[in-house]
Amino acid sequence: MRRKKRSTIEDMMEEERPRERLLESGPGVLTDADLVAVLFGTGGPGEGVLELSARVTAALPLRQLHRVPVEELLLVKGLGHARAAQLLAAAELGRRLWPDGDAAALVRGPETVFDLTRDIRGANREHFVGFYLNSRNQVLRREIISIGSLNASIVHPREVYQPAIAVSAASLILAHNHPSGDPTPSEEDLAITRRLVEAGRILGIDILDHVVVAKDAYASFKERKLLHA
For 112, 137, 186, 220, which has the most beta carbons within 10 A of its beta carbon? Predict the structure, then answer.
């Protein structure tokens, strides 16, 4: 089953809308574009907020947003002074709350991934996440790629590797939760991982691990020697 294409907020079921998902499951389940959509609230003339937020997050380095000059923000189509001010205020608030935020998380092993997936471990639907790393295994970007049903995520290589290319990632780590509470990889997990590993080899971007998490435990493909195409 393919995920339904989202065009406007009005096209989405209420429980799928970014603001409702944030309130229900926490901000960690939202993509960067979803978070910006919540921040903006509305789109512009002839353009929905989802389209606007997707373009903004593609055009701007969100991790370094507090360093981006206002003049550069205003070059992005749809960003006037009011929305530029919203973005800069949010970035500054985040910097004050997390003063060492410029220090990217260093992934030392599956236990680090387990710690970085606290927000999805207890979710009642599968959340498939990508951690995009530089050559020192620091996280350049974390992206929620897919949110599935009770027991299945729908994942396409294109959606996994687009963020990797966007941030020039050297490698990536996959993670997803098992709502059942048992992190043992399923046959579907194995098949999806083999497909993604093969795609990564073609692109020259290695998958270092795939970590399945549950509320109190995890299973690492690398540790179990399951990471192969």
Answer: 220
Mean pLDDT (whole number) for 67-81 = 87
Encoded tokens for 147: 């949110």
Nearest residue to 130 via CA among 161, 174, 185, 196: 174
Q: What is the mean pLDDT of the chain?
A: 86
| Residue 144 β-bridge partners | 129
Write the DSSP symbol of residue 11: G
**pTM, to two decimals:** 0.62
How far from the centroid of its chain's Cα atoms is residue 97's Cα?
21
Q: What is the pLDDT of residues 10-61, one digit of tens each?
A: 677 777 888 998 888 777 778 888 899 999 998 888 888 999 999 898 888 8
Tokens of 212: 């399945």
CATH architecture of 110-220: 3-Layer(aba) Sandwich (3.40)
- Cα three-residue angle 154-159-162, rounded to 5 degrees: 170
Can you say whether residue 3 is alpha, beta or left, with left for phi > 0 and alpha for psi between -120 and 50 degrees?
beta
* Burial class (CB within 10 angstroms; exposed 0-12, middle 13-18, buried 19+) of 152: middle
Q: What is the C-alpha separation between 31 and 198, in angstroms, rounded?
A: 25
Q: Please report, for the chain, the start and end positions of each structural domain, with discontinuous segments joined by +.
A: 9-97, 110-220
